[in-house]
């Protein structure tokens, strides 16, 4: 089956600075592919080349079988783009904005349907400049979806959203993917990537350090489980054997580094029930 996206040896430079350093990846039709990493890892720079908003310094990119820059006319009708910051006109209303965006699409969805999907139908007459940050992000998403795309690029789609709105957006994106829409998204949230993505690439300093399914990455990217010991408890008394972990003890504080987060957290919680353990928490990678 032809790949929806194929990237080979992609480099992107800004003067002397290399933001993306020779990465290769592919996205299958109907797949949700996530790019994770800290700020400056190269996620947005990679996404902009896929979107056709920038040309690669080196390497090749094919989207739906075409170069996304020179073949824009063949790609754009089928793609939706949600930028990290939409920059929409502040003086227009929500409805006017989506209607204006729909005018650039060959077969747009009805504006009221799109606003309902992103839970902005009750704000249709409000000017963009009066929206909250979370509402503006949902409006950015509406503009990405109004063209009824088969491929959507989402740059940090839930940044600024409250937990309830974030879960709603996740549900909407799941629904779209179940209908066959291919997606590429960037995110800082490991939980978001685990929920939405079929495969994830973790980027660092312009390179893909590791790539795989959420289950594979959970087993390969270290996490840290930390807790304090109450007074009078022998240090690590009876702690279960946890193969493949590294344990550090200092001043009654314990840190366990593990590549088997789910397995080891369960074991430690069971042990904690029988001991005076306080302040147990988990630091997941990239979260």
Automatic annotation (TrEMBL):
InterPro entries: AAA+_ATPase, ABC_transporter-like_ATP-bd, ABC_transporter-like_CS, ABC_transporter_ATP-binding, P-loop_NTPase. Residues 5-230 form the ABC transporter domain. One of its GO terms (biological process) is response to antibiotic. It comes from the Bacteria. It is found in: Cell membrane. Belongs to the ABC transporter superfamily. This is Multidrug ABC transporter ATPase.
């Amino acid at each position: 089956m032809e790949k929806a996206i194929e990237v080979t040896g992609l480099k992107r430079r800004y003067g002397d600075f290399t933001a993306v350093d020779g990465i290769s990846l592919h996205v299958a039709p109907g797949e949700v592919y996530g790019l994770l990493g800290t700020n400056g890892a190269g996620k947005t720079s990679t996404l902009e080349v896929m979107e056709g908003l920038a040309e690669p310094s080196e390497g090749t990119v094919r989207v739906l079988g075409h170069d996304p820059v020179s073949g824009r006319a063949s790609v754009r009708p089928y793609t939706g783009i949600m930028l990290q910051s939409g920059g929409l006109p502040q003086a227009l209303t929500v409805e006017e904005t989506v209607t204006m965006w729909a005018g650039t699409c060959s077969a747009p969805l009805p504006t009221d349907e799109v606003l309902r999907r992103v839970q902005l139908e009750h704000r249709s007459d409000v000017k963009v400049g009066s929206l909250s940050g979370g509402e503006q992000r949902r409006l950015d998403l509406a503009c990405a979806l109004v063209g009824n795309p088969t491929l959507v690029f989402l740059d940090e789609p839930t940044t600024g959203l409250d937990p309830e709105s974030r879960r709603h957006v996740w549900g909407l994106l799941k629904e779209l993917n179940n209908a066959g829409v291919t997606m590429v998204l960037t995110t800082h949230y490991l939980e978001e990537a685990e929920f939405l993505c079929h495969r994830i690439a973790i980027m660092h300093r312009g390179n893909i350090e590791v790539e795989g399914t959420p289950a594979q990455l959970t087993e390969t990217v270290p996490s840290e489980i930390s807790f304090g010991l109450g007074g009078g408890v022998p240090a690590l008394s009876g702690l279960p054997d946890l193969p493949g972990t590294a344990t550090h003890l200092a001043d009654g504080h314990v840190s366990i580094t593990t590549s088997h987060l789910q397995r080891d957290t369960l074991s430690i919680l069971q042990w904690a029930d029988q001991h005076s353990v306080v302040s147990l928490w988990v630091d997941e990678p990239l979260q």
